[in-house]
Amino acid sequence: MKQDLLTFADWSSQELEALLELALKVKASPADYQQTLSGKSLVALFEKPSLRTRVSFDIGINKLGGHMVYLDSQAGKLSGREDTLDMGANLACWADAIIARVYSHKTLEDLASAAKVPVVNALCDLYHPCQALADYVSLHEHFGSVAGLPLSYIGDGNNVSHSLMLVGAILGADVRIITPPGYEPDAAMVEKARERAAQSGGSITISNDLAAAAGCKALYTDTWLSMGDTTPLEQIKAVFMPYQLNMSLLRQTGASVVMHCQPAHRDLEITSELVDSDYSLLFLQAENRMHAQNAILISLLGQ
């Protein structure tokens, strides 16, 4: 029976820990996995443009011996041309898996329901599971363990914060989400994360107060202005600038690393001083996107 990866929300801690360990094995010994996807073709359907997601999947699949077909639904004039259900069913006639970076989670659900092959969420409005796995691979690599690790996500309560919170809850981390008032993560996501944290020994904190980040080992942020958002920048800055990741905040909290899923808007949500500093894990996160995604594909498709 095929398995999709639309979100990690219902994965067990054992499954997720095994996936994290597999990502680290793939990174350490890539030659051991170079034929894992031999003879397999994967379609990457992108409604939203990307640098890291596209390149890391394309090169990663090649390193596993597979082949990726990239479909840009906008430039290729696929958007609105046919029903998502029909697209999923047709792609499954040829491809061994579908990787989709889309605007709506409903699109992923439709693809998964129609396709007889695994569907992987490469980003949607609710989740970014591949990014979250890469983030925890990076934290595990840097700190040696994720369980009990205190980290703060500071900024907009968006898809990145949802997956960071859910995966952290399952792995037993101490995840604190700090946002401006009115920008908190989805309440249902918070409830789910707290349920999973209760099982793992982790904890979830939601706050509007930067003081909640005190004692955290890692500070994480994301863009304040999501792709396609037309809110004037000055209006965004008025709300979010007090939540900027900068050297002063790093020293106040006692954190030793900063993180960002990128693309980063330098000197808005995070200062260039931090991006380019020894505190930065940004490019380790980017590197680990490929290894985390390869672990996912091996898990779903490998023999």
From TrEMBL:
Domain Aspartate/ornithine carbamoyltransferase carbamoyl-P binding: 4-141
Species of provenance: Lacimicrobium alkaliphilum
Keywords of the record: Transferase
Protein's UniProt name: Ornithine carbamoyltransferase
Originating gene: argF-1
SUPFAM superfamilies: Aspartate/ornithine carbamoyltransferase
Superkingdom in the source lineage: Bacteria
Enzyme class: transferase
InterPro entries associated with the record: Asp/Orn_carbamoyltranf_P-bd, Asp/Orn_carbamoylTrfase, Asp/Orn_carbamoylTrfase_sf, Asp_carbamoyltransf_Asp/Orn-bd, Orn/put_carbamltrans
Family: Belongs to the aspartate/ornithine carbamoyltransferase superfamily.
Domain Aspartate/ornithine carbamoyltransferase Asp/Orn-binding: 148-299
Entry EC number(s): 2.1.3.3
